[in-house]
Amino acid sequence: MFAHQTTLAGTAVVDGVGVHSGAPVVMTLEPGDAGTGIVFVRATVDGDEHEIPARHDLVKATELQTVLGDADGASVSTIEHLMAALRALGVDNARVCLDGPEVAIVDGSSRPFVEAIEAVGLRKLSAPRRMLKILKPVRVEQGRGYAELAPAPSGFHMDVTIDFASDLIGRQQIRFELTPQVFREEIAAARTFGFLKDVERLWAAGFARGSSMENTVVLGDDRVLNPEGLRFVDEFVRHKALDAVGDLALSGLPLVGRFTSFCGGHKLNGAVLGALLADPSAYAIVEEAPVRREQREPRHAAAPLASAVPAFGPRVD
């Protein structure tokens, strides 16, 4: 990690379709100037370009995805997988130019974005990196679910739990400190998921039109339908953690603290971040001190499953 801000050292291109819109999209990840953060540049059909900064106050929707929009009505959706990769790898500034309404789903995880970013590398900028340090706990509850942001001496620590009543789901929990290596090896490859029985309902609501077994873990009545199976035995909670990294990246700055969620999703992630930013006494903006080189962490850095029951489940966020 750097004590100075970073940007991409080159330009990367990622293409695919939107998982909800089904629309094709070509995305170009470009270097950004210091202090500009992550900015989505949306080219519309009328030839206009809209710059939409990746900030929490521009979130327009959180049902099954996170959507950003500007005052003119331009929007970009399903940003969370890309934002997770940018935040976890330490990219402070970048421009994401896209010719469609939705970030490409690619394989349903953050791994293609990690690979694209690492292929071009990072460039250190002269400006110091600023961090958002959490000073006191902030908690939001919705039904039986909750999300909390709390102080920690250093780093950003995550504790994510899912729990469903279905015999195919059970309870899964993962705990880790967010570092580039942990994200790359333990979180980035976890894919989005859903039940086959929900497809027609989602289509009718305008969702999942680009979903397929190439970009989604599909669950039948009693098994995973993807021929290749799962990438992790607890892939589902890992993907929930991935989504949370991306949603919380809309703070605009790396966080120093601890995130805990139970039965969470995009809505809760956004709500707890909004509660934090609404209370100036709950955080402080600090400059990052130089840190030693990251140490390699073992595969067992993540906590084991909280239940021996095989855990599979739909996205309900």
Automatic annotation (TrEMBL):
Keywords: Hydrolase, Lipid A biosynthesis, Lipid biosynthesis, Lipid metabolism, Metal-binding, Zinc
Family statement: Belongs to the LpxC family.
EC number(s) on file: 3.5.1.108
Biased composition, class Low complexity, residue ranges: 301-311
Location of the active site: 266
GO CC entries: membrane
Annotated positions binding Zn(2+): 81, 239, 243
Organism: Methylopila capsulata
Record keyword Membrane present: no
UniProt-listed PANTHER family: UDP-3-O-ACYL-N-ACETYLGLUCOSAMINE DEACETYLASE 1, MITOCHONDRIAL-RELATED
Gene3D superfamilies: lpxc deacetylase, domain 1 (3.30.230.20), lpxc deacetylase, domain 2 (3.30.1700.10)
Protein name in the entry: UDP-3-O-acyl-N-acetylglucosamine deacetylase
NCBIfam families named in the record: lpxC
Molecular functions (GO terms): metal ion binding; UDP-3-O-acyl-N-acetylglucosamine deacetylase activity
Residues covered by region (Disordered): 294-317
Pfam families: LpxC
Superkingdom field: Bacteria
Biological role: Catalyzes the hydrolysis of UDP-3-O-myristoyl-N-acetylglucosamine to form UDP-3-O-myristoylglucosamine and acetate, the committed step in lipid A biosynthesis.
Biological process according to GO: lipid A biosynthetic process
Xref: InterPro entries: Ribosomal_Su5_D2-typ_SF, UDP-acyl_GlcNac_deAcase, UDP-acyl_GlcNac_deAcase_C, UDP-acyl_N-AcGlcN_deAcase_N
Cofactor(s) listed in the protein's UniProt record: Zn(2+)
Reaction(s) the record says it catalyses: a UDP-3-O-[(3R)-3-hydroxyacyl]-N-acetyl-alpha-D-glucosamine + H2O = a UDP-3-O-[(3R)-3-hydroxyacyl]-alpha-D-glucosamine + acetate
